[in-house]
Amino acid sequence: MSSNPFYVLAGPPGAGKTTLLEQISDEIETVPEYARRVLAHERRTGGRATGDQDQALFVARMLDLALSDYQSAVGPTLFDRGLPDLLAFCAHYGLPDNRVHAAVQAHRYRQAVFFLPAWKEIYSTDDERLLDFAGAEAFGELIRTAYEQSGYDLIEVPKASPHERAAFVLERISR
């Protein structure tokens, strides 16, 4: 496994990853979620690379952005989603995952991945997050499986305040 200083927040939509990333951003370099960036771009430009229009193009654009993010990162960096999340997208959409799988094997993160479980009390939908809670929870299990099958160990981040979650993650990064 990689000893590079790249860490990942993984988990289903609406589990608090983005809030946690914002809480930590003064302490470590962070990379925002690629899925939301692709969706925002497609919405602005009238593009079709979305989960409800062209799923294969959506995954391809996310993969390109995730690889660019990975290759641009220098020093300790915390990513909101990593490449293995894309295996879950492929499984969810019933798409082939050969290109994604090759990228997952070639671009490794730290062995321990921070997993934020589905949390109904904080879950909400928005312009990019369209799944209901049950759908998000099921997608979270696809993400968990993708990381485990890719050889990562998951550290479950407790359901707590953003400040407490940030302290939990930062303590483990500093070890």
What does this structure look like?
This protein starts with 5 loop residues before the first strand and ends with a helix. It has helices at residues 17-24, 34-45, 55-72, 84-93, 98-106, 133-149, 162-173; strands at 6-10, 29-31, 77-80, 112-115, 153-156. It has a single domain, classed as P-loop containing nucleotide triphosphate hydrolases (Rossmann fold), CATH 3.40.50.300. Helix content is 49%, strand content 11%. The model has no long low-confidence stretch (mean pLDDT 93). β4 (112-115), α6 (133-149) and β5 (153-156) form a beta-alpha-beta unit. It has 7 helices and 5 strands. The chain has a 5-stranded parallel β-sheet with strand order 2-3-1-4-5, sandwiched between helices. The protein is of the alpha/beta class and 175 residues long.
What is the helix tally?
7
Q: Which radius of gyration do the C-alpha atoms yield?
A: 15 Å
The number of E-state strands comes to: 5
Major sheet details: 5 strands, parallel
Mean pLDDT: 93
How many structural domains in the coordinates?
1
Can you identify the CATH class?
Alpha Beta
Named at the architecture level, the CATH assignment is: 3-Layer(aba) Sandwich
Helix fraction bin: 40-55%
Structural class: alpha/beta
State the CATH topology.
Answer: Rossmann fold
Q: What would CATH call the homologous superfamily?
A: P-loop containing nucleotide triphosphate hydrolases
